[in-house]
Amino acid sequence: MPRRFLVIRQDRIGDCVLATGLPRELKRRWPDCTVTMLTRSATAPLFAHNPHVDTVWTDDWDDPARCEPFWDLVRRLRGGRFTHALMLLPKARYNYATFCAGIPVRVGHGIILFHALTLVRPVMTRKFRKDRHEAEYALDLARAVGVKGGDPAPELYLTRDEKSAARARRARWTGGTDARRLVGLHATSGGSAPNWPPRLWAELASLLAQRADVQVVLTDPEPPAELLAVPGAVHAGRPADLREGMVNFAALDVLVSASTGPMHICGALQVPTVSLFCPMPACAPALWGPLGNRADNVLPRPEYCRDRCPGDPHVCDYRGDSGVDPQTVARRITAALSGL
């Protein structure tokens, strides 16, 4: 009987992008298998048009108005006749749902009480190893059921029409000249990573806007007012959906951002990135850096982290003499553009 895989990835954009290589590796190992992705509605577009994904299902566990009743979810899973469930994010809802649906092989990260109670096959995760990336940890679940080795590189697929739209936007933003480079600035991160305050993003935008060979593109749906006030900066506009946002990123020559979802989208689309990072093990580029592109990850000076680290990467804004300042990042962008 051909294997029928249910891959559950129910978290943020970056996490989902880094799991896009998993269906490809399952298909390489078992060409006749089927792969169903179960994700949130907000991230489902990341798996659209992926030739290695047969079906994309959604379950909005974090939205009380849209969350599917538990036993309805169980009946839906049972109807899928899955042979394997790979649960990339430990979550009791999906652990118990896959158990009640009778999926024979269920694999998850770590030894957790609800895993132990339902005999989930555990995959031990030690995310503070310096030589391993989050995408490798995602692929570990496929390795646990028989994938040999495997390539963790993420992939996103644009349609022909989307590629055409990206070219059209590029032509519009550059004024139709190949002499100008598009530098996207994504100034927000939802508080998920260290980030500059808006005034520093505006300072970087002003430095770049002085260059005749650079067009600054603001890719945030709602950029901070300080950025919108920078003369010459173009706002890409509020995308209608995530696919529209992907088209915007595909038009760029380089994206500058904190360590956040758009950075990972650009990695999978092979758009170069310059990214602000924290060296703490749980946030470092070795674990969370973009994959698949030319990436320059900007880190604070070691002395700064030693003397000024607030201990919480979510509140760090590189305040003071961190070495992560608009002038330094502008030089790194110049280097990234010179390599194109």
Write the layout of secondary structure elements.
Layout: E1 4-8, H1 13-17, H2 21-29, E2 34-39, E3 55-58, H3 70-79, E4 84-87, H4 92-100, E5 105-109, H5 113-117, E6 121-123, H6 134-143, H7 160-174, E7 181-186, H8 198-209, E8 214-218, H9 225-228, E9 234-235, H10 242-250, E10 254-258, H11 261-268, E11 273-276, H12 285-288, E12 295-298, H13 302-308, H14 326-338
Parallel strand pairs: 1-2, 1-4, 2-3, 4-5, 5-6, 7-8, 7-10, 8-9, 10-11, 11-12
Helix pairs in contact: 2-6, 3-4, 7-10, 8-14
Written description of the protein model:
The protein has 340 residues and is an alpha/beta fold. It folds into two domains: 4-143, Glycogen Phosphorylase B (Rossmann fold), CATH 3.40.50.2000; 164-338, Rossmann fold, CATH 3.40.50.2000. Helices cover 35% and strands 16% of the residues. It is built from 14 helices and twelve strands. β8 (214-218), α9 (225-228) and β9 form a beta-alpha-beta unit. It starts with a strand and ends with a helix.
Strand order of the largest sheet: 3-2-1-4-5-6
Overall structural domain count: 2
The CATH topology of the largest domain is given as: Rossmann fold
CATH top level label of the largest domain: Alpha Beta
How many strand segments? 12
